[in-house]
Amino acid sequence: MKKVSFAEFGGPDVLQLIDAEEPHAGPGQVRVAVRAAGVNPVDWRVREGQILKAHPLQLPAGVGLDASGVVDEVGEGVEGVEVGDHVFGEGSSTYAEFAVLGAWARMPEGLTFEEAAGYPSVVETALRVIREVGVRPGQTLLVSGASGGVGSAVLQIARDRGIKVIGTAGAANQDYLRSLGAHATTYGEGWVERVRGLGHVDAALDLAGSGVIRELVELTGDPSRVVSIADLGAPESGVRFSGVAGSVPDALAEAVDLISRGRLHIPVEKSYPLAEAAAAHIDSQAGHTRGRRVMVV
Protein backbone atom coordinates (compact mmCIF):
# COMPACT_ATOMS: atom_id res chain seq x y z
CA MET A 1 0.00 0.00 0.00
CA LYS A 2 0.99 3.66 -0.33
CA LYS A 3 1.80 5.54 2.88
CA VAL A 4 3.32 8.90 3.83
CA SER A 5 6.34 8.43 6.09
CA PHE A 6 9.41 10.25 7.39
CA ALA A 7 12.77 8.81 8.44
CA GLU A 8 14.14 11.90 10.21
CA PHE A 9 12.71 14.93 11.98
CA GLY A 10 12.65 18.10 9.97
CA GLY A 11 10.75 20.25 7.52
CA PRO A 12 8.05 19.21 5.05
CA ASP A 13 10.69 17.88 2.67
CA VAL A 14 11.32 14.86 4.95
CA LEU A 15 7.89 13.47 4.04
CA GLN A 16 7.97 10.66 1.49
CA LEU A 17 5.27 8.58 -0.18
CA ILE A 18 6.47 5.00 0.13
CA ASP A 19 5.30 1.44 -0.43
CA ALA A 20 4.63 -0.16 2.96
CA GLU A 21 3.16 -3.31 4.43
CA GLU A 22 -0.52 -3.11 5.24
CA PRO A 23 -1.38 -2.80 8.96
CA HIS A 24 -3.92 -5.15 10.52
CA ALA A 25 -6.54 -4.65 13.20
CA GLY A 26 -5.55 -5.91 16.63
CA PRO A 27 -7.86 -6.52 19.60
CA GLY A 28 -10.22 -3.59 20.11
CA GLN A 29 -9.34 -2.04 16.75
CA VAL A 30 -10.73 -1.77 13.24
CA ARG A 31 -8.90 -1.31 9.97
CA VAL A 32 -10.29 1.00 7.33
CA ALA A 33 -9.66 1.49 3.67
CA VAL A 34 -8.91 5.19 4.08
CA ARG A 35 -10.90 7.63 1.97
CA ALA A 36 -9.63 10.81 3.65
CA ALA A 37 -7.31 11.82 6.50
CA GLY A 38 -7.41 15.00 8.57
CA VAL A 39 -4.44 17.39 8.43
CA ASN A 40 -3.81 18.66 11.97
CA PRO A 41 -1.10 20.96 13.40
CA VAL A 42 -0.05 18.06 15.63
CA ASP A 43 1.01 16.22 12.47
CA TRP A 44 3.72 18.72 11.56
CA ARG A 45 4.67 19.29 15.19
CA VAL A 46 5.36 15.56 15.49
CA ARG A 47 7.22 15.61 12.16
CA GLU A 48 9.47 18.37 13.55
CA GLY A 49 10.02 16.44 16.79
CA GLN A 50 8.37 19.13 18.93
CA ILE A 51 6.04 17.12 21.16
CA LEU A 52 7.54 13.69 21.60
CA LYS A 53 6.41 13.37 25.22
CA ALA A 54 2.78 13.38 24.15
CA HIS A 55 3.43 11.48 20.91
CA PRO A 56 6.45 9.16 21.31
CA LEU A 57 7.48 7.35 18.14
CA GLN A 58 10.25 5.41 16.48
CA LEU A 59 11.63 6.42 13.09
CA PRO A 60 10.78 5.83 10.34
CA ALA A 61 7.22 6.80 11.24
CA GLY A 62 3.90 7.37 9.53
CA VAL A 63 1.89 10.57 9.68
CA GLY A 64 -1.67 11.38 10.69
CA LEU A 65 -4.17 10.67 13.45
CA ASP A 66 -7.61 11.19 11.91
CA ALA A 67 -9.30 9.28 9.12
CA SER A 68 -12.58 8.37 7.53
CA GLY A 69 -13.11 5.26 5.48
CA VAL A 70 -14.72 1.87 4.98
CA VAL A 71 -14.18 -0.82 7.60
CA ASP A 72 -12.47 -3.86 6.08
CA GLU A 73 -11.11 -5.65 9.18
CA VAL A 74 -12.63 -5.94 12.66
CA GLY A 75 -10.33 -6.87 15.53
CA GLU A 76 -10.96 -9.34 18.30
CA GLY A 77 -13.50 -8.21 20.90
CA VAL A 78 -14.95 -5.42 18.74
CA GLU A 79 -18.73 -5.25 18.61
CA GLY A 80 -21.24 -2.93 16.96
CA VAL A 81 -19.34 -2.43 13.70
CA GLU A 82 -19.10 -4.56 10.58
CA VAL A 83 -17.01 -4.80 7.45
CA GLY A 84 -18.40 -2.28 4.98
CA ASP A 85 -19.46 0.32 7.57
CA HIS A 86 -18.52 3.94 6.88
CA VAL A 87 -16.72 5.31 9.95
CA PHE A 88 -14.54 8.20 11.08
CA GLY A 89 -12.14 8.19 13.98
CA GLU A 90 -8.63 8.35 15.33
CA GLY A 91 -5.68 6.00 14.95
CA SER A 92 -2.15 6.27 13.64
CA SER A 93 -0.38 6.64 10.29
CA THR A 94 -3.62 7.68 8.62
CA TYR A 95 -1.98 9.34 5.58
CA ALA A 96 -2.16 5.93 3.91
CA GLU A 97 -4.37 3.64 1.86
CA PHE A 98 -5.14 1.54 4.96
CA ALA A 99 -5.04 2.55 8.63
CA VAL A 100 -5.92 1.05 12.00
CA LEU A 101 -8.28 3.03 14.23
CA GLY A 102 -8.51 2.67 18.01
CA ALA A 103 -11.57 4.94 18.30
CA TRP A 104 -14.33 5.36 15.74
CA ALA A 105 -17.98 6.11 15.14
CA ARG A 106 -20.35 5.62 12.24
CA MET A 107 -20.41 8.65 9.97
CA PRO A 108 -23.52 10.79 10.37
CA GLU A 109 -25.90 10.71 7.42
CA GLY A 110 -25.12 13.29 4.76
CA LEU A 111 -21.44 13.70 5.69
CA THR A 112 -18.84 13.11 2.97
CA PHE A 113 -15.64 11.20 3.68
CA GLU A 114 -13.63 14.40 3.23
CA GLU A 115 -15.79 16.28 5.73
CA ALA A 116 -15.80 13.41 8.23
CA ALA A 117 -11.99 13.15 8.28
CA GLY A 118 -11.80 16.69 9.62
CA TYR A 119 -13.69 16.10 12.86
CA PRO A 120 -12.13 13.56 15.30
CA SER A 121 -9.08 15.31 16.82
CA VAL A 122 -10.59 18.75 16.24
CA VAL A 123 -13.75 18.03 18.24
CA GLU A 124 -11.84 16.23 20.98
CA THR A 125 -9.50 19.21 21.32
CA ALA A 126 -12.36 21.74 21.28
CA LEU A 127 -14.30 19.89 23.97
CA ARG A 128 -11.16 19.47 26.08
CA VAL A 129 -10.05 23.10 26.04
CA ILE A 130 -13.57 24.40 26.71
CA ARG A 131 -13.65 22.12 29.74
CA GLU A 132 -10.13 23.00 30.91
CA VAL A 133 -10.60 26.76 30.66
CA GLY A 134 -13.70 26.48 32.86
CA VAL A 135 -16.01 28.75 30.87
CA ARG A 136 -19.72 28.41 31.71
CA PRO A 137 -23.04 29.23 30.02
CA GLY A 138 -23.67 32.97 30.09
CA GLN A 139 -19.95 33.82 30.19
CA THR A 140 -17.75 35.14 27.37
CA LEU A 141 -14.92 33.16 25.80
CA LEU A 142 -12.22 34.84 23.68
CA VAL A 143 -10.75 32.59 20.98
CA SER A 144 -7.48 33.68 19.36
CA GLY A 145 -7.08 31.93 16.03
CA ALA A 146 -10.77 31.16 15.69
CA SER A 147 -11.15 30.34 11.99
CA GLY A 148 -9.26 27.04 11.83
CA GLY A 149 -10.62 23.59 12.57
CA VAL A 150 -10.46 23.70 16.36
CA GLY A 151 -11.66 27.30 16.42
CA SER A 152 -14.60 26.47 14.16
CA ALA A 153 -15.58 23.65 16.51
CA VAL A 154 -15.10 25.76 19.65
CA LEU A 155 -17.32 28.55 18.34
CA GLN A 156 -20.16 26.20 17.49
CA ILE A 157 -19.94 24.04 20.62
CA ALA A 158 -19.82 27.18 22.79
CA ARG A 159 -22.87 28.59 21.00
CA ASP A 160 -24.72 25.32 21.59
CA ARG A 161 -23.89 25.61 25.32
CA GLY A 162 -25.02 29.22 25.69
CA ILE A 163 -21.50 30.69 25.87
CA LYS A 164 -20.81 34.02 24.13
CA VAL A 165 -17.71 33.92 21.94
CA ILE A 166 -15.38 36.63 20.67
CA GLY A 167 -13.14 35.38 17.88
CA THR A 168 -10.01 36.86 16.34
CA ALA A 169 -8.92 36.01 12.80
CA GLY A 170 -7.61 37.62 9.65
CA ALA A 171 -9.69 40.19 7.77
CA ALA A 172 -10.76 37.63 5.15
CA ASN A 173 -12.35 35.40 7.79
CA GLN A 174 -14.47 37.93 9.69
CA ASP A 175 -17.74 37.03 7.98
CA TYR A 176 -16.95 33.34 8.46
CA LEU A 177 -16.60 33.82 12.23
CA ARG A 178 -19.86 35.75 12.35
CA SER A 179 -21.60 32.95 10.44
CA LEU A 180 -20.61 30.62 13.31
CA GLY A 181 -22.15 32.92 15.90
CA ALA A 182 -19.05 34.77 17.09
CA HIS A 183 -18.41 38.46 17.65
CA ALA A 184 -15.44 38.90 15.32
CA THR A 185 -12.44 41.17 15.19
CA THR A 186 -9.08 41.18 13.44
CA TYR A 187 -5.52 40.66 14.57
CA GLY A 188 -2.98 43.44 14.42
CA GLU A 189 -2.32 46.70 16.21
CA GLY A 190 -5.07 47.68 18.62
CA TRP A 191 -6.68 44.24 18.74
CA VAL A 192 -6.80 44.18 22.56
CA GLU A 193 -8.82 47.40 22.65
CA ARG A 194 -11.08 46.10 19.89
CA VAL A 195 -11.77 43.00 21.99
CA ARG A 196 -12.49 45.14 25.05
CA GLY A 197 -14.98 47.07 22.95
CA LEU A 198 -16.89 43.83 22.37
CA GLY A 199 -17.34 43.12 26.07
CA HIS A 200 -15.84 41.61 29.21
CA VAL A 201 -13.77 38.44 28.70
CA ASP A 202 -14.14 35.62 31.25
CA ALA A 203 -11.77 33.10 29.66
CA ALA A 204 -9.52 32.81 26.61
CA LEU A 205 -8.07 30.18 24.30
CA ASP A 206 -4.88 30.48 22.25
CA LEU A 207 -5.33 28.25 19.23
CA ALA A 208 -2.77 29.81 16.87
CA GLY A 209 0.40 30.29 18.92
CA SER A 210 0.85 33.81 17.59
CA GLY A 211 2.55 35.25 20.69
CA VAL A 212 -0.54 36.65 22.42
CA ILE A 213 -0.38 34.88 25.79
CA ARG A 214 0.47 38.05 27.72
CA GLU A 215 -2.46 39.91 26.18
CA LEU A 216 -4.88 37.05 26.85
CA VAL A 217 -3.86 37.03 30.52
CA GLU A 218 -4.32 40.81 30.60
CA LEU A 219 -7.82 40.53 29.13
CA THR A 220 -8.98 37.76 31.49
CA GLY A 221 -7.06 39.05 34.52
CA ASP A 222 -5.96 35.55 35.50
CA PRO A 223 -3.53 33.11 33.80
CA SER A 224 -5.64 30.20 35.07
CA ARG A 225 -8.42 31.44 32.77
CA VAL A 226 -6.27 30.97 29.66
CA VAL A 227 -5.43 27.72 27.86
CA SER A 228 -3.13 27.29 24.84
CA ILE A 229 -2.84 24.42 22.41
CA ALA A 230 -0.20 26.12 20.26
CA ASP A 231 2.35 28.00 22.39
CA LEU A 232 4.81 25.63 24.09
CA GLY A 233 6.09 28.58 26.15
CA ALA A 234 2.68 29.30 27.69
CA PRO A 235 3.50 27.67 31.07
CA GLU A 236 6.23 30.30 31.58
CA SER A 237 3.36 32.80 32.00
CA GLY A 238 1.36 30.50 34.27
CA VAL A 239 -0.90 29.45 31.39
CA ARG A 240 -1.84 25.84 30.86
CA PHE A 241 -0.62 24.14 27.68
CA SER A 242 -3.09 21.45 26.66
CA GLY A 243 -1.59 18.74 24.50
CA VAL A 244 -2.80 15.37 25.80
CA ALA A 245 -6.07 14.06 24.40
CA GLY A 246 -9.02 13.07 26.54
CA SER A 247 -11.62 10.46 25.57
CA VAL A 248 -11.82 10.27 21.80
CA PRO A 249 -14.84 7.88 21.83
CA ASP A 250 -16.77 10.39 23.96
CA ALA A 251 -15.76 13.22 21.63
CA LEU A 252 -16.86 11.26 18.56
CA ALA A 253 -20.23 10.53 20.18
CA GLU A 254 -20.71 14.24 20.90
CA ALA A 255 -19.60 15.13 17.38
CA VAL A 256 -22.20 12.76 15.91
CA ASP A 257 -24.89 14.31 18.11
CA LEU A 258 -23.95 17.90 17.21
CA ILE A 259 -23.64 17.16 13.49
CA SER A 260 -26.92 15.25 13.44
CA ARG A 261 -28.69 18.17 15.16
CA GLY A 262 -27.25 20.63 12.65
CA ARG A 263 -25.23 22.36 15.37
CA LEU A 264 -21.76 21.61 14.01
CA HIS A 265 -20.37 21.92 10.51
CA ILE A 266 -16.69 22.40 9.65
CA PRO A 267 -16.04 23.13 5.97
CA VAL A 268 -13.13 21.60 4.09
CA GLU A 269 -11.03 24.44 2.70
CA LYS A 270 -8.69 22.29 0.62
CA SER A 271 -7.97 18.64 -0.15
CA TYR A 272 -4.62 17.12 -1.15
CA PRO A 273 -3.58 13.75 -2.61
CA LEU A 274 -1.11 11.70 -0.59
CA ALA A 275 1.71 12.74 -2.93
CA GLU A 276 1.21 16.37 -1.81
CA ALA A 277 1.50 15.81 1.95
CA ALA A 278 4.40 18.27 2.14
CA ALA A 279 2.25 21.00 0.56
CA ALA A 280 -0.53 20.24 3.04
CA HIS A 281 1.90 20.71 5.94
CA ILE A 282 3.29 23.93 4.51
CA ASP A 283 -0.22 25.33 4.20
CA SER A 284 -1.20 24.13 7.68
CA GLN A 285 1.86 25.75 9.25
CA ALA A 286 1.14 29.01 7.44
CA GLY A 287 -2.21 29.26 9.24
CA HIS A 288 -5.14 31.43 8.14
CA THR A 289 -7.17 28.28 7.48
CA ARG A 290 -10.93 28.54 7.19
CA GLY A 291 -12.20 25.19 8.51
CA ARG A 292 -10.16 22.11 7.65
CA ARG A 293 -7.55 20.70 5.29
CA VAL A 294 -7.62 16.97 4.48
CA MET A 295 -5.69 14.34 2.55
CA VAL A 296 -7.72 12.29 0.07
CA VAL A 297 -6.88 8.72 -0.88
From TrEMBL:
Domain of life: Bacteria
Organism (species): Streptomyces thinghirensis
SMART domains in alphabetical order: PKS_ER
Location within or outside the cell: Cytoplasm
Entry-linked CDD domains: MDR_like_2
Domain Enoyl reductase (ER): 10-295
Keywords: Cytoplasm, NADP, RNA-binding
Subunit text: Homotetramer.
InterPro entries, per the entry: ADH-like_N, ER, GroES-like_sf, NAD(P)-bd_dom_sf, Quin_OxRdtase/zeta-crystal_CS, Zinc-ADH_QOR/CCCR
Pfam families per the UniProt record, alphabetical: ADH_N, ADH_zinc_N_2
Protein name: NADP-dependent oxidoreductase
Coiled coil: none
